[in-house]
Amino acid sequence: MSKSFDAGLRRSLKLGAGMLLASAFPLVSHAQKKYDPGASDTEIKLGNLNPYSGPASAYGTVGKAMQAYFDKVNATGGINGRKINFMTLDDAYNPAKSVEQTRKLVEQDEVLLMFGSLGTAQNIAVQRYLNAKKIPQLFINTGATRFGDPKANPWTMGWQPTYQAEGRLYAKHILQTKPNAKIGVLMQNDDFGKDYYKGLVDGLGDKAKTMITHHLTYEVSDPTIDSQMVTLKSAGCDVFVSITTPKFAAQAIRKAAEIGFKPTQYLVSVSQSASSVLKPAGLENAVGIISSTYLLTPMDPAAAGNKDAAEYAATMKQYYPSGDPEDTLNANGYSTAATMVQVLRMAGDNLTRENIMKQAANMSFIPPMLYPGIDIKTAPDDFFPIQKKALQRFNGKTYETILQATAG
Q1: pTM reported for the whole predicted model
Q2: For 112-128, what is the mean pLDDT?
Q3: 117 and 72 housed in the same domain
Q4: How far is Cα 78 from Cα 40, in angstroms, rounded to an integer?
Q5: Residues 112 and 44 sit within 8 Å (Cβ to Cβ)
């Protein structure tokens, strides 16, 4: 073999090896892990606010149910080997404190995103800040319609059906069953109350002006709503729409019973909890109340034979034994957490904030504890994940479905 042939052979082999090595680089680059602050090989930090104290402290159980679901996920290896660090703080249902605590979670604790924070005014208070910093404000626990506007706020997405859609659903039912009703409304005087009320008025259409005879409000800081309930009774209202948070919802039900006020009652879904509202008000006083749901609880007839419902009950027993599985607030926290986990799984090793929002905006998923016939669907131009609800009536022990899942 000549020296020139041998040298040429060596050059060819080197060239071939170099080409092979070069062709491998794109594969390595494609598989490279990408992280923003709050994510690493071992951990994913999620920030959250809940009112563990203050006038809406009944909602604190939502955060504890979220923690239970994340504990279950972490116990089985986490998400692609990463454990979820759920950093949940108390904002006492105070928007000023929501700002303070959100800034702490973002700037000091360096969470990857904010997830499932509760309250309309509370999330409004931090929406501009989070969008300016391009930090996801994901699956927040409020149905205010403004949280589904990807053009105005591309880093904010709600989760539950909108309050306006729920208000329209009640209006439709009132028109069908009591077209000549004298409607009395008690409303929390903030964006939460106003969104529900707009849906009710829109749903009643031209009849709203004549059918809604009394529209009363209360402040979150008020000790009671007794005087408003007396006014509604004196006015002869035969339909009562209670746009209230748990403390005031329970007071309204109890006061109505005490003064012999017996209208058809519509109670917003955020306060339909048997544990946090109906039991404190007296179950016997709540018979006949109409509400709506998009969630299951284990005792619901629709949950019979449902494996997810059984797993939910077992998870609650193991990781949150003091929590009531029949409380829809706990089902809410559990199901919302499952949705968050789904997005993180979809994001894979690309745990950037931009990719997480991309995955959240491309979902087709049924998390555990959603009512049959209801699912989650999103798109880049559709930031309303859940858009159906079922109408229910309380029979003294549980809610019975009177209208299957439908859009508002």
Answers
A1: 0.89
A2: 98
A3: yes
A4: 13
A5: yes
Q: How far is CA 379 from CA 48, 50, 376, in A?
A: 24, 28, 10
Residue showing tokens 């108390």: 90
Which pLDDT tens digit goes with each residue over 312-339? 999 999 999 999 999 999 999 999 999 9
CA distance 292 to 392: 5
d(CA 338, CA 66): 8
Given the DSSP bridges, would you call strands 388-394 and 399-407 parallel, antiparallel or unpaired? antiparallel
**Helix H or strand E encompassing 163:** helix 163-177
Whichever domain contains 221, its CATH number is 3.40.50.2300
Tokens of 178: 């009591």
What tokens were used for 360?
Answer: 């959240």
Token pair recorded at residue 269? 């879904």
How many independent structural domains does the chain possess? 2
Q: Is 40 left (phi over 0), alpha (psi -120 to 50) or beta?
A: beta
The per-residue pLDDT for range 210-229, each reduced to its tens digit, is: 999 999 999 999 999 999 99
Beta bridge mates, 293:
390
Paired residues of 379 in beta bridges: 382
* CA–CA gap between residue 32 and residue 94 (Å, rounded): 42
